[in-house]
Design brief:
This protein has a domain of 91 residues. It is α+β, with helices and mostly antiparallel strands. It is rod-shaped. A six-stranded mixed beta sheet has the order 3-2-1-5-6-4, with helices on one face. The protein contains one helix and six strands. A hairpin with a 2-residue loop joins strand 5 and strand 6.
């Protein structure tokens, strides 16, 4: 009789351990299911923030280039202005006619320049500089990385 009682209590003890393990597994399953549901929206929100940040930077570049080139057109030869920017993703800077076109993944901004200029197309991410200078009555725009 004693042996039967001992076996019964061992079985009961193992049953409680098994129940605790199943409960633990169910809690972990719920946690990972919730994480799987929430994680894509967190990723999308962070990507939207990064894209918006670069769009703001691109808009600022367009506005600054337009304002500074106008200012340089009134100043004498040898005048120079250097602007510093940081982007998270890639920003493309191109020239077309009398316009500088600054684009990101999602937006395009233009700066219409009042006078002739010289520019070579560039793509940047990270820290970079835009240097505007006036030489021979021509505005020269040079874009270079902080790493060079």
């Amino acid at each position: 009789m004693r042996q039967g009682k001992c076996l019964q209590s061992i079985t009961l003890f193992k049953s409680k351990k098994a129940q605790a393990s199943i409960d633990y597994l169910l809690v972990m399953l719920g946690f990972f299911a919730a994480l799987a549901i929430i994680l894509p929206s967190i990723t999308q929100a962070s990507q939207s923030f990064l894209s918006a940040s670069d769009s703001i930077t691109a808009k600022q570049i367009a506005d600054d280039i337009q304002a500074q080139s106008t200012m340089l057109s009134f100043l004498g030869n040898g005048s120079k202005k250097t602007l510093e920017y940081n982007s998270i993703k890639e920003i493309n800077i191109n020239a077309s006619g009398n316009k500088i076109i600054i684009s990101t993944e999602s937006k395009i901004f233009e700066a219409i320049l009042p006078n002739d200029f010289v520019f070579k197309d560039k793509n940047f991410s990270g820290k970079f500089f835009v240097e505007l200078s006036k030489e021979n009555d021509l505005v020269k725009i040079n874009v270079f990385s902080a790493l060079t």
